[in-house]
Amino acid sequence: MKITSTNIAKPTTIVWNGKTQTTGIYKYPTKEGIYLEKEDVKGDEVSDRKHHGGIFKACYLFSEDHYAYWQNLYPNLDFNYGIFGENLTVKGLDETKITVGDIYKIGTALVQVTQPREPCFKLGIRFGTQTILKQFIKHARPGTYVRVLEEGLIKPGDKMILVQAATERLTTAQLFTLLYAKQKDQSQLALIVHNDAIPLKKRQKLAAFIKN
Predict the structure, then answer these.
(1) pTM of the predicted model as reported, rounded to 2 decimal places
(2) pLDDT (0 to 100) of residue 47
(3) Residues near 77 by Cβ (< 8 Å), separated by ≥ 6?
């Protein structure tokens, strides 16, 4: 896996349901790379701290490989790297292969895969339609958040090097499907209970579906 683009956002004002608010969904490439801090990317706009940023969502990665799929669905949209709100656009990132808890070295940073992105209305605003939310969930290739174990600089061209594979083999795609499935896979649920790469609140929510 290789970093295609590093992206950050300046604060942008939007109107949603009659209310004015600020968002960091409008990310664009930066030539000098990005610096990963413990709870966010240095210089990046994180407006909604309740749902974005923090230890388990310090940086968002999305696969360059999926761009063609979305460009085919939205041929009139002006695509740029960062359009999905990702800080890192990654060539070769495959959510069916990366595992929650995997640790990677990228540039001078050390990160751990935590959880897939769950789309909200701001992605719909970026794409000009809320229809994309259902499409995004159905496609089930959501990219992934990471937590930062060691702060560091990441530049385009840097490789993602697996340092340590997770003990529990639950892929990002499987966790994403698990979050939205009405009938949840019991064997997969069992894998998340003690996986501390996943936020405790999310683990507790999913654990409630485990059948005794």
Answers:
(1) 0.93
(2) 58
(3) 71, 83, 127, 128
